[in-house]
Amino acid sequence: MVVDEVITGVTVSWNSIELVKTSIESIRKFHPEMKIIIVDGSPKDSPCRQYVKSLPDKDVNITALLVDHNIGHGLGMNLGIDYVETPYVLFFDTDIVMVKSPLQGMLDMMEDDTFGVGYSETVAPDGHDWGVLPQHKKNNEPKVRYLHPYFQLVQVKEYRKYKPYCHHGAPCISTMWELHQKGLSDKVLKEFAGLGHTKGRGASWVPCAGEWVLHDVEHFGGTGRLRESMGLPHIEGKWDTSYV
Questions:
Q1: Element (H, E) at 12
Q2: What is the pLDDT at residue 225?
């Protein structure tokens, strides 16, 4: 399979023109013809909105979905996949930089029932890194395998089988929790060696060398960190907990 013909990239942006620009340009170095959908919820008069709006005129393989509010990561990904016509979708954060493409290798790992290929962390059912909150250990809460949306290749037909991504600080948690409950996590989620965050440290992860994709959560942390720097909540509105 030709990567650019079977994968569509989907990213969600908010008020971060430099992040969008850097991530898209880095992917384009390796995949000049791959379709990319940008779901942008930036203010209408912001430089980010104007930049995203202008991209389809410069690149026929880019679609700009302009929403009138800060839709959030999970709902943005869920909206973007509705416009995907290829069998696979690459969800990626705007604060990534591709330095070498792993997509052919990730694609080669796909089987008929594979949900996604990427990098996983261990979280509690509430979406927080397992062990960060006292109740995780006190209540002996389950350890959930969480395919991280910073860079994940997902099979569209498999995505449709489970609960969709949701409005949450860990937007894939509704899907990952369902997979866990059904005993499918280790069957349908696959790890691609060398992927992971490249700076920072979490309860269940340490930084990787960044052979494929740079993701500096220590200094950038995506739009959530940007919102916090502006005195705004990490995520707009309440987290969706209806999945539990």
A1: strand 7-13
A2: 66
